[in-house]
Prior knowledge:
By secondary structure, the protein is α/β, with parallel strands linked by helices. The chain folds into 2 domains: 3-140 and 262-305, Rossmann fold, CATH 3.40.50; 142-259, 3-Layer(aba) Sandwich (Rossmann fold), CATH 3.40.50.460. It has 10 helices and 11 strands. The strands form 2 sheets. Strands 3-2-1-4-5-10-11 form a 7-stranded mixed sheet, sandwiched between helices. It has a 4-stranded parallel sheet with strand order 7-8-6-9, with helices on both faces. α1 packs parallel to α9 and α5 (141-162) crosses α6 (177-185). The longest helix is centred in the middle third of the chain and has 22 residues, at 141-162. It is elongated and about 75 Å long.
Amino acid sequence: xxxxxxxxxxxGDAPGLNAAIRAVVRAAYHYExxxxxxxxxxxxxxxxxxxxxxxxxxxxxxNRGGTILLTSREPRFKEYEYRKKAIENLxxxxxxxxxxxxxxxxxxxxxxxxxxxxxxxxxxxxxxxNDTYGTDYTIGFDTAVNNAVDAIDKIRDTTMSHERVFxxxxxxxxxxxxxxxxxIASGADxxxxxxxxxxxxVIVDTVIKSRERGxxxxxxxxxxxxxxxxxxxxxxxxxLKPYDFGGVRYSVLGYIQRGGSPTAYDRNMASRFGVFAVxxxxxxNKNFMVAYEKGEVVSKPLDVSFGKIKKxxxxxxxxxxxxxx
Length: 325
């Protein structure tokens, strides 16, 4: 077993990273590769912060959130001299390919290693935002949605008791995937996402009409890329003063969505992605990203997602509007 590959996690953490690390390590050993773990993402590549991983080292981590390899955002990697140092460190260890579990930014950084040094890189997509272009799914999304739904369900109890309007802000950067899926699953009255924005008067009208139909409370789910929950709540408070409401409150779910034990779906997808990545590399495929498309795990060029925006399906958004009656 003389051949070696390396694996790192980069960018924001996401539930399912450990399951993906486990899958890469165990698949690699199955196909007789040693695995070098790189700690703290690209920072570890530069500083030679390495550890070897065997199948026992990744036991009992499939259910754990976060990443045992840790992660960071490393601005030095934007400079050629540090990328060169990273490659020199990998070559000193005899590593022949780098497996990067990350999102768009991580893949773009990894692609520089391909262009500048012809070093093989394999990307495994993860981000709770699910906004990586070229794949229908990214590791961590399902858990983040479930975390958000669990929180919204609890908030609804208070909202109903006080007959209030409640604005809940979820994560997603400039993407509305979490807000849309969590909003539908939690029965939100209004779902605000950056891809299909509502003017404020429509939001106000929706809440008022809901009250006229006999519903004494309302839940509004807003993606952070649209506006802050505080700002939306303040505007609503002013607009709804003439009506009989128990007030407007807001909550920002924040990083709670990125933590916790991954769902069964995320564990399974991370496992499939990791094994597929190793098997494709063994077949001779290089410089690709793993993708999930139409129910199948496939490989695509590493740069397929660069400079492109993935949007939620408009039909899903319309579904949320229909169900909000």
